[in-house]
Hints:
elongated, 3-stranded antiparallel sheet, mainly alpha, 63% helix, single chain
Amino acid sequence: MFLASMFGHKETKQVDNYMAGAVYAGRRPLFDRSVLVASVLLLLLSVVMIYTASIGVLAAKVDGDTFFFVRKQLMFILLGGILSTLVLTVPMQIWARLSKRYLIWFAILLLAATYFMGSEINGAKRWLNLGFFNLQSTELLKLVWILYLGGYFYRHIKKMESWAGVVRPLFFLGVILGFIYLQDDFGSVVVVSFVTIVLFFISGLSIKFCFTVAVLLGGPFFAYIIMTSPYRVARILNYLEPWKDEFGKSYQLLNSFMAIGRGDLTGQGLGESLFKLAYLPEPHTDFILSIWVEETGFVGAMLVLGLEFFLIFKMSWLGLRHLKTGKILTGEIALGISMWFLAQVFINVGSITGLIPPKGLTLPLLSYGGSSLVMMMAAIAVYLRISYEERMGLYTEYLAELKSVRRMERRQALNKMNEALALAQKEADAQKNASATAEAKPYASTVVFKGTNPNKGTSSVKLKPDATQAKGKIKELDSNSKVESKLAPKPAPKEDHNYGRSYLG
C-alpha cells in the first residue's frame, strides 16, 4: 500500500492544488519523481561507463570476463534497491527516536569492529566481511552520522547558540574521526567534517563560531594526519608540481589530464578510450569520469555533472525549505545528504582535474563500488521518504480543507433551499388565504330583487352580492322594485313525528 501511494494516489485526480501553492492537474505522485528519474539515469549511465572503462586489458585480467565488473555493479544496484525499498517504509520519526541513543553507538561499534576484525584490501583495513558482501563501514557511517545529527538538532535546537549545544556532538565526532583515521581513510574524514560544519552553521551557530571550531579543533587534527603520513605529504608536493615526477607519483593524475583533453567537445566515441588500456590504473573506480570525458567529451561531462548537481540542488532546496518552516529533523537530514553528495562530487572531480590533491573518493551513483553505491541509494531513499511525508501532509491538509469547504457549501445550499421552501410555503399560504377570502364573500348573502313590470308582470331575481352586478340589476328593474335581502337562509322545516306533518318555523 505504501509503494502504491508513492507512485500515485487514487484520489489525487481530484486534487488541483495541494503542493506548496502550485497548481496540479490530473494524477500526481506523492513523492519527488524528478529525483528518482535522475537517480535511475545515473545508475544506468554507471553501468555503461563501467562497461566501457573496464573492457579490454583490465577486464581480461579477471578470467577474461569482459562483463565481470558490469555484473557486480548490477548486483550492487539490486542490493541497493532492496535496501532502499526497506528505507522508504521507515517514518522519519523512527529515525528521530533511534538517533537519541542507538544510532551513534551503532556507528562507533561498527567502526571499532572494522578496526579489530575487518579485512585489509590494498593496505587499508576498511571492510567488514559479511559473507556475501564486503561492507565499508565508513560509507554506512556517513548516512548514520547525518541521521544522528538531524535527530540531535531536532531535540536540542535551542541549545545550538552556545558551546553547551555542541559539546556532545563534537565529542562523538572526535571519536568517529579517530576510528576513520585508524582505517587510513582521509577522504571520509574530510567529508564527515565538512558535513558536520555545514549542519552546525545551519542549526544556528554563527560563522565565527564554526570557523573557530574548524581552526582550533580541526586544524591541528588535519595537520597531524598529513604530517605523520609521508605519502600524503608527497601527494601535496606532486599536486603543486605534477610534471616533476610524471612517471612516478604524478603518473595517474597526468594521464587523467591527457584523457580529459583528448575528449574535446564530443569525445572519441564509446569504447574508443586509449587511456583505459593500463594507462589509468583502475579506471572504473575513482577515475571513471576521466574515461567518460575522453569517450563522450564535454557534452558527456555536462550530462553527468548536470544530473549530479540536480540531485544536490533538489535535496538542498527541500532541506532549506523545511528548516525555514521549522521542520528541523527532516531539514537537517535532507541538507546533510546533499552536502555529502556535494563533497564527494567536488573531491572526485577536483582530484581528476588537478584542482585539489588527489584523493580516492567515488563519484556518487556512478563509480564502481559496493558500499558507496548501496549507501548512497539508501540516502536517496531517505530523501524520497522526506518528500513523501511532506507531500502527504500537504495532501491531507488539502483534503481536510476541501472537505470543510464542501461541508460549508452543502450547509449554505441547504440553508438556501430551506429559505426558498419557507418563502414558497409563505406565498402558498398567502394565496390560499386570499382565495379563501375571495370564495367566502360571494356566498355570504343572497339578494332577491322583486318588482312589477307592466309588460312582463311580477319578476324576482336572486344575485350574489357583487357590487357592480347588483347596481346593474337595480337599474334594469322597475323603479318601484322592492329589494329584499336575505342575509341568512331560513332554518330547515321541523317535522312533527307525532302528527305526521311539517311546521315552517
